Amino acid sequence: MSPIDVPADNGVIIGEDGLARTPWAARDPLLREYYDTEWGLPVRGEQAMFERVSLEGFQAGLSWATILRKRPAFRAAFDHFDPDAVAAYTEHDVARLLADAGIVRNQAKIRATISNARATADLRAEGGLAEFVWSFQPETTPRPRTPEEVPTTSPESVALSKALRRKGFRFVGPTTMFALMEAVGIVDTHLVGSHRRGSSGIWQRP
């Protein structure tokens, strides 16, 4: 038997450590570490939430593994996603970022991140970005047993996308916002058979 086995009944992959994970997190060490220690855990702070919104926006059209590998460079380039620092960026900073090979050099996404930082600052008058995003938490969470059962959007992610756009945010489409909601614990889309199911402490297993 190979060190990684794929059970036919529930879609998870059993790693060499004996733990069951969703297939996307089973083989790449970086993705596995992210899955085991961060993905799906609640994010409540403004700066942390702004970072997640920004990275999800940069991920659009790319693989998450690409973004995760560039994450240290993104943090260095964007002042660790301090909204006030990013909101103050000028055209000089846009040029600097476009010249930074360590990040995704997409001008539209870079400019969106800067404008989103300004929108984040504006949201403080309404309780802040994190509280705003969490206000779209659904009453129930998906309970996927196979990767095919994991949704890519939800009524809440559609509503969150529209609400953020009204607040001036960009690159926050419904699919991107559903990915955000998964990443920060608002919904739990760990497969029912995964060792991480219920790890957010918000949703009960299964």
UniProtKB/TrEMBL annotation:
EC class of the enzyme, as a word: hydrolase
Residues that coordinate or bind Zn(2+): 190
GO MF, any single term: metal ion binding
One example of a Gene Ontology biological process annotation: base-excision repair
Keywords linked to the UniProt accession: Glycosidase, Hydrolase, Metal-binding, Zinc
Alphabetical list of InterPro entries matching this protein: Adenine_glyco (IPR005019), DNA-3mA_glycosylase (IPR052891), DNA_glycosylase (IPR011257)
EC number: 3.2.2.20
Keyword rRNA-binding: no
Name of the protein in its database record: DNA-3-methyladenine glycosylase I
